[in-house]
């Protein structure tokens, strides 16, 4: 089977793990238990790495498919119209029975539920179940008993139940069956660790109804009162779907190694949480979701960082606060569209990124009113981050995590300024070791250096790194830190240069030879335009960008401006956080 387009995938989440499913009904990615666990279905990255397909037997020329999330939820309903009839498949990663609102994911049953409903006529359907645990390394034995398939292989157990008998052979279970109008057939696939209680079994139809109500209860706590409310609330829901509910961490994406360039090597594992993205994500949750989400994300970050002492705080963690995310390749997998290597882990955790303190301290200042009195441990963390920001003269890997020698990136310097500016404002909460007077002196040094040395007279703009002649969209964050006014003549010139020279068909590329538009950079340009008072231009760019989401309102990391194809891991938290931030900026252009 050829790869499905990245934009073809829909997201299912139980706020502990996630699955990706195609329009045709194939679950091509599922890492049960936790976002970063090994996959059971991995056809996303190799045709032989497992899938579970539930859809019409043949895709006739007359077949038409439409799909949407059930309003207010991440429960997906897909309707297939065939020559013989129409059938709906409704599916979700199940909520715990009786769960409501923020209980989703805290005790996830790890059950994938799919219900087939005949709408008109009679449709010939197929169920093809091909589990391949451990990223496709294991071809398990399948045991078919009545209408149940038992899978025991390696560290896990799976149980698939359905209303039709399935034939098992060579690690595959298969059935074809007719669905007439009015018939409702439920399937549930349950996961459990191998050496523990057996997989939980749920009744699919009431479980789907409970899961819808659980998501709606979560969305009901959203308190957004601004422009584009449906888009903002949907992106807020996606961000909650990317949240590991037991800890509050928000993963960058649910998959690994979807390429930035087809056939290329820039394929990374994004199933972790980045502190660099903290303020962007925190602001999006604060705007689009509810205070509990922002508070839990803050608590996760503080706990994960621990007592860093004089060492730089790591840029990223696993969802439970794991630090060692050492990277290795899955050489047995072909990769999406032949894009290799396929990576697990991410060696960016070893990098120095001087923007990390800014991300955390700006986010902390944003929610300062709900923090109350800070513990000594949290005070020490925030003071330590402010001290780390005083080392702003050191080179780093930058926002785009360059794996070459460090450079003096302007965005990193500006976020160091933002870290110190926020720490000064937070000083009354930070205890006896706060040093606002010294922090203010260093903060002023940073601003002087950035405005003096970051400007490239020949280019007529602030460039990505000091001394570099290359434009870089990362400098669009400068106004949002508060370091420079968006209406400063040089900043205005920089915004115009990026809009002119880094923008192709309305999509902003990170640097001149970047082939695709980076979604969040486009939303940052929207924010900058809004802050300069060019609201009509900002609105037009925002509306053009949101129209590029897939049919489920999901954004990957990048979009090819020539073809409109989504590229990189999907759905990307930073893209959706960028949408929320841009909509809020269009609502309140002066908001920082």
Q: Which CATH architecture of the largest domain would you pick? A: Alpha/alpha barrel
Please estimate the helix content. Answer: 25-40%
The total count of strands amounts to 27
Q: What's the shape?
A: globular
What count of structural domains?
2
Return the CATH class of the largest domain.
Mainly Alpha
Strand content range: 15-25%
The whole-angstrom Rg is 24 Å
Q: Give the overall average pLDDT.
A: 93
GO molecular function: hydrolase activity
Domain Trehalase-like N-terminal: 6-162
Keywords: Hydrolase
Protein name: Glycoside hydrolase family 15 protein
Features:
single chain; 592 residues; alpha+beta; Beta-galactosidase, Chain A, domain 5; Glycosyltransferase; 2 domains; three-stranded antiparallel beta sheet; 15 helices; 30% helix
Question: What would your notes on this structure say?
Answer:
This protein has 15 helices and 27 strands. It has 592 residues and is an alpha+beta fold. It has two domains: 6-219, Distorted Sandwich (Beta-galactosidase, Chain A, domain 5); 229-587, Glycosyltransferase, CATH 1.50.10. The radius of gyration is 24 Å and the shape is globular.
Briefly characterize the structure.
By secondary structure, the protein is of the alpha+beta class.
Fold topology:
Blueprint: E1 10-13, E2 18-21, E3 26-30, E4 51-56, E5 64-69, E6 76-81, E7 85-93, E8 111-130, H1 133-136, E9 141-145, E10 148-153, E11 156-161, E12 167-169, E13 172-180, E14 184-193, H2 204-219, H3 229-241, E15 243-244, E16 249-250, E17 273-274, H4 278-288, H5 291-305, E18 316-317, E19 328-329, E20 343-344, H6 356-366, H7 368-371, H8 376-389, H9 410-426, H10 436-453, E21 455-456, E22 461-462, H11 478-481, H12 489-501, E23 503-504, E24 507-508, E25 517-518, H13 519-531, H14 535-546, E26 558-559, E27 566-567, H15 573-587
Antiparallel strand pairs: 1-2, 2-3, 3-4, 4-8, 5-6, 6-7, 7-8, 8-13, 8-14, 9-10, 10-11, 11-14, 12-13, 15-16, 17-18, 19-20, 21-22, 23-24, 25-26, 26-27
Helix pairs in contact: 3-4, 3-15, 4-5, 4-6, 4-15, 6-8, 6-9, 8-9, 9-10, 13-14, 13-15, 14-15
